[in-house]
Amino acid sequence: MTTALGTVEVQSAPPTRPPRRHRRITPRSLTGQVLLYGMLVLLALVYIYPFLVQVATSFKTEPDAAADPVSLIPATFSTAAYERLFLHSDFPLWFANSTIVTLCVTVGRVFFVSLAGYALARLRFRGRGVVFALVVAVMAVPTVVLLIPKFLVLNQLGLYNSYAGMILPLLVDAAGVFIMKNFFESIPDSVEEQARIDGAGTFRVFWSIVLPMARPALITIVILSFQGSWNELSHFIVSTQSPELTTLTKGVASLASGQLSQGTQYPLKLAAAAIMTIPVAVLFFIFQRKIMNTSEGAVKG
Fold first, then answer.
1. Beta partners for residue 230, in sequence order
2. By CB neighbour count within 10 A (0-12 exposed, 13-18 middle, 19+ buried), where does 196 fall?
3. Other CB atoms within 10 A of residue 249 CB
4. Which of 188, 210, 187 is nearest to 200 (CA)?
5. What is the model's pLDDT at position 301?
6. Is 145 helix (H, G, I), strand (E, B) or coil?
């Protein structure tokens, strides 16, 4: 403000915020919340109870498990089932085979579906729409329909009963290609223009610019690939026959069918199932908050 005496600075008072209105909790709304949370807790218990029974039964003795199979407290705590699995069975070999196959499939699938997704999202070539339509069509084909063709192809190529036959057919997944393509399309083309102006090639742009931005989608693919290959059974049935290449899924299935033991053997079977569940559960709990959010990846202008 300018006056005859000079310039006078006038400071306006900061705007006042309206007082926050506290939501009034009525007895009716409180009852609704209690009922809602009660139902959620009940559903959680329904889902988690079988897993708790599985863990508890694995520490029971055989007579205790047969007499009271659904109790959560063993009458006699015993680690005999785990000792038998690790010391007197081929379970360590099954675990090693599953670990090798799962790690190879996960790394390979993340790399190849990322390449395929980027090609379908960014590269312009004839027949791109047809290729993507075929990818979507493969997602609709039941897995059981492909079992016999898989066996015939693996046998014809000499890959039957080998790690290559177990790993190679699982390296590409149609659902993973679909996810990566949609995520790459959410990234504006302007992000890549500067790199192309500087002389970067297509693969360099993909590897150094676009792929680091696709971290949420990559984490999603890692989880899905790890879980899918770790729990795979039908493919391993038609691709191998040798006991030295038995995976956890085939081994646990043979335990469940009674091929390797007599009697119910509930502690032994559920101990194997509990150990098999641990890697997938750990991976999911580590990355559960980083699973892909479709709103991420797009750059705001």
1. none
2. middle
3. 20
4. 210
5. 39
6. helix
In which region does residue 161 sit, left (phi positive, over 0), alpha (psi from -120 to 50) or beta (all else)? left
| pLDDT value, residue 104 | 96
Residue type, 98: S
Q: CA nearest 118: which of 66, 176, 171, 64?
A: 176
Query: In whole angstroms, what is the distance from residue 154 CA to residue 169 CA?
Result: 9
Mean pLDDT score of the chain: 83
- Which pTM does this prediction carry? 0.78
Contacts of 92 (CB under 8 A, 6+ apart): 86
Cα–Cα distance measured from residue 287 to residue 301, given in angstroms and rounded to the nearest whole number:
29
Q: What is the CATH code of the structural domain delimited by 90-257?
A: 1.10.3720.10
User: For the chain, which residues score pLDDT lower than 50?
Assistant: 1-12, 292, 294-301
> Comparing C-alpha atoms, which of 224, 179, 217, 228 is closest to residue 296?
217
Q: Scan for tokens 């080998």, then name that residue.
A: 162
DSSP state of 123: -
DSSP tag of 2: E
Listed residue (106, 141, 150) closest to 239, CA to CA:
150
Q: Which residues pair with residue 128 across a beta bridge?
A: none
Q: Exposed, middle or buried by CB within 10 Å (0-12, 13-18, 19+), for 9?
A: exposed
Q: Residue 71: is it exposed, middle or buried by C-beta count within 10 angstroms (0-12/13-18/19+)? A: middle
* Residue 217 to residue 215: CA distance in whole angstroms: 5
Q: How far apart are CA 111 and CA 24, in angstroms?
A: 53
